[in-house]
Amino acid sequence: MNQEYIIPNAWSIIEKGWRPEFVKSSESLFSIGNGAMGQRANFEETYTGDTFQGSYVAGVYYPDKTKVGWWKNGYPEYFAKVLNAPNFIGIDVFIDGEALDLATYDQVHHYKQELNMKEGWLERSFNIELTDDKEIAIKTRRFLSLDKDELGVINYSITAVKGDMRISFQPYIDAGITNEDSNWDDAFWEVEELTSKDHQAFIRSRTNKTNFYVCTYMQSELYKDGEHVQYADPFDQNDTVIRHKVATQLEEGETATLLKYAGYTSSLNHEHFELMDAAKAAISHAVNKGYQQLLQDQIDAWADIWAMADITIEGDLKAQQGIRFNIFQLNQTYLGKDARLNIGPKGFTGEKYGGSTYWDTEAYCIPFYMATKDQHVARNLLTYRYEQLDKAIENAEKLGFSNGAALYPMVTMNGEESHNEWEITFEEIHRNGAMVFAIYNYVRYTGDYDYIPEMGLEVMIAIARFWHQRSTYSSRVDKYMILGVTGPNEYENNVNNNWYTNYIAKWCIEQCVEHIKKVKSGHEDDYHRVIGLTSLTDGEISSWLEVAHNMYMPYDKELGIYLQQDGFLDKELIPVSELKAVHRPINQKWSWDRILRSCYIKQADVLQGFYFFEDHFSKEQLEKHFDFYEPLTVHESSLSPCVHSIQAAKLDRMDQAYEFYLRTSRLDLDDYNKEVEEGCHITSMAGTWMSIVEGFGGFKIVNDMPSFETRLPKQWKSFSFKINFRDQILTVNVSDSATTVQLQGYQSQDIILNGKKLTLEPLAVNA
Amino acid sequence: MNQEYIIPNAWSIIEKGWRPEFVKSSESLFSIGNGAMGQRANFEETYTGDTFQGSYVAGVYYPDKTKVGWWKNGYPEYFAKVLNAPNFIGIDVFIDGEALDLATYDQVHHYKQELNMKEGWLERSFNIELTDDKEIAIKTRRFLSLDKDELGVINYSITAVKGDMRISFQPYIDAGITNEDSNWDDAFWEVEELTSKDHQAFIRSRTNKTNFYVCTYMQSELYKDGEHVQYADPFDQNDTVIRHKVATQLEEGETATLLKYAGYTSSLNHEHFELMDAAKAAISHAVNKGYQQLLQDQIDAWADIWAMADITIEGDLKAQQGIRFNIFQLNQTYLGKDARLNIGPKGFTGEKYGGSTYWDTEAYCIPFYMATKDQHVARNLLTYRYEQLDKAIENAEKLGFSNGAALYPMVTMNGEESHNEWEITFEEIHRNGAMVFAIYNYVRYTGDYDYIPEMGLEVMIAIARFWHQRSTYSSRVDKYMILGVTGPNEYENNVNNNWYTNYIAKWCIEQCVEHIKKVKSGHEDDYHRVIGLTSLTDGEISSWLEVAHNMYMPYDKELGIYLQQDGFLDKELIPVSELKAVHRPINQKWSWDRILRSCYIKQADVLQGFYFFEDHFSKEQLEKHFDFYEPLTVHESSLSPCVHSIQAAKLDRMDQAYEFYLRTSRLDLDDYNKEVEEGCHITSMAGTWMSIVEGFGGFKIVNDMPSFETRLPKQWKSFSFKINFRDQILTVNVSDSATTVQLQGYQSQDIILNGKKLTLEPLAVNA
Predict the structure, then answer these.
(1) Over chain A, what is the mean pLDDT?
(2) How far is A213 from chain B (nearest CA, A)?
(3) CB contact under 8 A, A590 and B400
(4) Cβ of residue B478 closer than 8 Å to a chain A Cβ
(5) What does the pLDDT average to over A444-473?
(6) Residue B396: closest C-alpha in chain A
(7) How confident is the model at residue B767, as a pLDDT?
(8) A152 pLDDT above the threshold of 70
(9) Which residue of A183, A423, B128, B646 lies most exposed, with the fewest beta carbons within 10 A?
(10) Binding site for substrate: residue ranges of A?
(11) Which of A353, A398, A589, A592 is the mutation pick for testing B, counting most B CBs within 10 A?
(12) Known binding site: residues of A?
């Protein structure tokens, strides 16, 4: 079926044996990042085989001119794109004058690559028989410091296993890079200044149009058998590259090591004229600490993350590896330190999907960050959208809305829309609902009600205005309808009355009105500020409620189910199980019109509503809808299996839940979608976390209390996870004999465990 | 409102006064063509002002690589494009060494441009005061020979009105041209060979990928006050241009004339190695005839066309000019001599819309050509599609259809699809119906039933198969449905059960089955050939009929109308008349989603069905549907006003019919859509013809007889038109006192005039 070359291991991603055909997949899977920057696992040394080079600086983007076949009014003129950044990892290696290049040898032995998730480093080792009497062993380890997030560290060692030889290292930084995913072959970067001095090198480049300044820097040290060796400072440079040259002679058995400190400083965090000084400070930091201490700092920093975020699974190594890989990648991508950043669907593992922020953040990522980080991290994610409210209002104005109605973009970097398919950009408007759901979810979870008067209410009002204006009164049925939308199931376009969209629209308005009342009574100053700002009147609120209370919901009485959209039952409803393999995945095998007129569902749509609004429906209703829709679902979105895993678990269909869990947790490791070369599916990794915590752990908030309804898959001996609930940490252990919840907190905590209310005392264990 | 600079005239398009802002509009409106080639009315001499250069050779195209933002399975990889061809009209002029360039003078007087439609030539004249004591008069006339369709003739005269001066002409041919409308800036042409000898010049170029060879040629003669002047043969050439140099001295009052014979020979009509000889033959033809005789031949050829095609209108000069402009442009674009050619939506007046052939040909153009040309012309247009049947089957296969089902492309040059919006390319499938309707219409009109066994039946079978496979059985209503389509009204996408599509699908199947029976009984050999070829069985035919007889038709009982599509009545139905001017045209003012969810109709959709299948519905039904749909129609397609004009006339709403008539007939002359700079709307010009002949003339075929139900707009004193009905020519005169029909035929002819059956004798007049 899918690829299976990754070796199961509880804490590491490992591949063994040199297979060039997996290079691009491994470049994605072994990617490293520290929230501020990241890289695909490209080789340091020259590689002339097939490769996809990628280095990224968080928050640095380029607005590429939109490319379409046929322009539609309302398309954004520019499309903010994740930018491939200058390369700082490069170290060309020459053995007796011959360039080292894995693509050129027949005799590569003991090839192993390991991404150590526990400690946060990437290591690659291999031997090469250069000739009958000459062999070398290479070992290179690198990491991007969590502690000092402008710093990368590379330790590149070569041992003369057989024979003597001259080794030359050429560490370089290269700002002459391009995006694979460019619409018009624009130059995204201008190189402004190159400086090389005292074994240090700096290139300051600027992004065109957006004028982000980034200084890429490096300094290298040479060691021979662990002894520091001074070397002269010869360098080469052209318009975009600075290259240092470091050579030494090895006798058989000796090891030469190049230690390279390198990274970026960017104008997001410094004045642009101070970037070089900031880079020098980063180098000093590194040199003063030294490699061993920097590595120890890295291990400690990851230990802190794991202390809170780890999930253990006993008895199923692949499942264990899968969940840790997901947690690890999420933390590599976003650490919540900077409210200007967000979680791109590919993180730092590829360029695809352009902009960085989708509704994935609100629907999938926030629960993970709420539970595994301090509360401010989730607040930062909400604040990101609050800061972009003006742009969301502008975006709606471009589409003809008025009076402060907001439509958040489908894809964005800076608040502007960065997507250009009309059926998505203009019609996949349910995303607005996820913004409000995230606020609701955040407040429910954290109890931080202040967020609503401070920021959330303005967002909710703008979105309520959107839904009100976007609805159409149908005199035929005397109801309000929402026509011409694309729901979460993107395999339907321009449908009328997508149930999920109508439901969340109604809910958004009602939520907003409820909070207007609450803020009015409890936060009078904010109330007056917001009412002043928005010129909201009681009359307007009434007109919203008229829409919300009379929203049409497509429903089939005979079946007793909500319909995904008007006319859904006119389709031929043939279960996916009856589709021949040759037709799948349908998004690769079928033309678009065939997909559209089929009944097949890309990802949870009606069931997404049942997931969000679990408490609005009975278990019987869930079961009925799950049984109707899941068999028609092809799960061709990475966001699909997790929701279905959770719901299957809640319906006690543990085998199905387990199967979906494997699919979501090992989506990239096993390359289910045959596209891991382009990067990993970062945002859906939060869905994997949810499928354990909310699915098997049955976690939810009930009456302000954490509630767990646990279920152990039969493939597992036990599993455990943690929840940071309002700064009280709950550890849930589920085994075949018992479920326990342990509290590390400073005060007692009420919880509901498998239906029973318990009061936990700090550090106590209850069963 | 719209532009009004074209001077009303019965036989000519005229502009007076030099206004650079109208240059691009005039380049479109004054375009000339002869069916085999055509040009925008670009100036011969240098013009550095704003211009859109265009020269076109019929049938020569380039497959440009498709450009889309997001690829959808099923998109064609290439997009056949009308090609801008080498320029042969160029004549640079120097007066005392200064280049003549209308963009550079303040003193341009008596500027006049005339397109003489009666005689088929374009003339431009103006005076320029170069200095206080130097003035010239320019007069240039050119035409593309109908008689010898590889030949263009230019007569370029300069008179020294004031002062003496040296005149230098530099006639040139230039193969270094590009398309404005290119996706990737590919080079469309390669220049292969340039030859200049004996006052003649030839450039042979080849289109990339498609390997069409075109030889562009010229020869010039110099005259002084009408006397032929020998001149030396100095020439200049670079990689893509050959330029001759011809100079003479003029004294005040003298006139220098450059006569340039130039044109193309192409590999469509000659072996590619014979192109230069063919060009030489064209030059010999021209030189032997001389300018006056060539012009006379042109006048005679156009007289022949007008003898059959002219429509006269008394009492309304603008209406008269409008209809003649439409008839003239149609004849410039397509003369029916070559079954490989078709009628591009811009003809030879611009590049827009890429490929050459739309369903416009079948739905709008065929009636015009049937009535105004010999029968073989319409047959050629049908044959064009028959020849492309294999490609239409391939096209359907790309979309997942099988068993010889055909989907004709939305846009094509060579039978391959050349459009790439999924909602059009994959979903605007009603075009298949127009193919069958054209066959039906042709046979009904011409009585040439043989076309069906010979060619038509294969097309009908492939299309019946498509409709059968494209239908979906809805168990809910126990009917067959057609889901996910775009109807003729392209302001709705991906709708279910577009009534027009469902209706024509049902009709296509029933037509096909009827003709299978007829061919079986009357053309046994063809029957066996076709059945053998298609492996058609009785069982398959039954399965088609099951679909056709149970096709779902959306209908509202309360209103008594067929619904444009499922759910149409859920829209807010606000008449166009209540839309504020600021919102129109909606395709420029509104975002696409807003257009889609609105009720507004781009062009006739349900009413297109009522137009095609007039006899299936009562006048009361027409009235009801017209009253429901027309008020919601924005007529933002050039194909819209004509159908509505015809229907308004049939409903005796003469003012409305007249208003629509003006809009269709003067669409380009008055630039209603503010885009005439890009070229004229050629195919809709056939609709203009229909709105007189079928609307005011009430022409249709009833029981094998021409029937006329005439109505005179009150703005007209009278009008007349001709119909070639099976080689019998009927002239219909409608005045306020009487309607007469005159027959120029070889046998008596039954007709129906205003409800009464009459038998016309050859050359008799009946009232």
Answers:
(1) 94
(2) 29
(3) yes
(4) no
(5) 98
(6) A591
(7) 46
(8) yes
(9) A183
(10) 359-360, 602-603
(11) A592
(12) 359-360, 602-603
The token duo for A112 is 């192993």
Type of residue found at B590 = W
Of A400, A423, A472, the CB nearest to B572: A472
Helices (H) and strands (E) in chain A, counts: 21, 34
Return d(Cα B738, Cα B753) in angstroms, integer: 11
Is A21 annotated in the active site? no
pLDDT tens by residue, A181-236: 666 667 789 999 999 988 899 999 999 888 999 999 999 999 999 999 988 878 88
> Which residue stretches of chain B have pLDDT < 70?
1-2, 180-185, 353-355, 764-767
CA dist B746 and A172 (Å) reads: 92
Within 8 A of A489 by CB-CB distance, chain B residues are: none
- A565 at B interface, C-beta within 8 A: no
The whole-angstrom separation of Cα A131 and Cα A659 is 49
Q: Which of A555-569, A665-679, B281-295 has the lowest mean pLDDT?
A: A665-679
Listed as own residue / partner, the contacts of B596-600 with beta carbons closer than 8 Å and 24 or more positions apart are: B596/A484, B596/A494, B596/B491, B596/B492, B596/B493, B597/A472, B597/A483, B597/A484, B597/B571, B598/B491, B598/B571, B598/B572, B599/B568, B599/B571, B599/B572, B599/B573, B599/B574, B599/B632, B600/B491, B600/B576, B600/B632, B600/B633, B600/B634
Q: Region A14-30: what's the mean pLDDT?
A: 97
Give the one of B420, B590, B596 whose C-beta lies nearest to A484's C-beta. B596
> How many A/B residue pairs have CB atoms within 8 Å?
125
Euclidean distance between the first and the last CA atom of chain A, given in angstroms as a whole number? 41
Q: A596 and chain B: CB distance < 8 Å anywhere? A: yes
**Which residue in chain B has the smallest CA separation from A182?**
B69
A400 contacts on B by Cβ (under 8 Å):
590-591, 594
Separation of first and last alpha carbons in chain B: 41
Sign of CA dihedral A318, A323, A325, A326: positive
Residues in A touching B590 (Cβ below 8 Å): 73, 400
* Predicted pLDDT of residue B184: 63
Cβ(B139)–Cβ(B124) below 8 Å = yes
| Of B250, B189, B196, the residue nearest B225 (C-alpha) | B250
- Facing residues of A140 across strands? A124, A156
d(CA A135, CA A250): 12
* Burial category of B97 from C-beta neighbours within 10 Å (exposed 0-12, middle 13-18, buried 19 and up): exposed
Q: How far apart are CA B561 and CA B569, in angstroms?
A: 11
By the CB < 8 Å criterion, does A15 face chain B? no
What was the pLDDT predicted at A66? 77
Asked if A70 reaches chain B (Cβ–Cβ under 8 Å), the answer is: yes
ipTM of the complex: 0.90
Nearest CA in chain A to B565: A567
Whether residue A607 contacts residue A630, with contact meaning beta carbons closer than 8 Å, is answered with yes
Q: Give the separation between CA B310 and CA B296, rounded to whole angstroms.
A: 19
Q: How large a percentage of chain B has pLDDT more than 70?
A: 98
Burial status of residue A410 (CB atoms within 10 A of its CB: 0-12, 13-18, 19 or more)? buried
Strands (E), A34-99: 37-39, 55-57, 61-65, 78-82, 91-95, 98-99
Residue A705 pLDDT: 96
Cα dist. A726→A306, A444, A449, A746 in Å?
A: 18, 11, 12, 11
Q: Is B349 within 8 Å of B757 (Cβ atoms)?
A: no
CA–CA gap between residue B378 and residue B386 (Å, rounded): 13
Q: Give chain A positions within 8 Å (CB) of B496.
A: 567, 570
Which of A27, A428, A490, A630 is catalytic? The answer is A490
**Cα dihedral angle (B47, B52, B57, B63), rounded to 10 degrees?**
140
Q: Which domains does chain A have, with CATH numbers?
A: 31-309 (2.70.98.40)
Cβ B597–A422 below 8 Å, yes or no? no
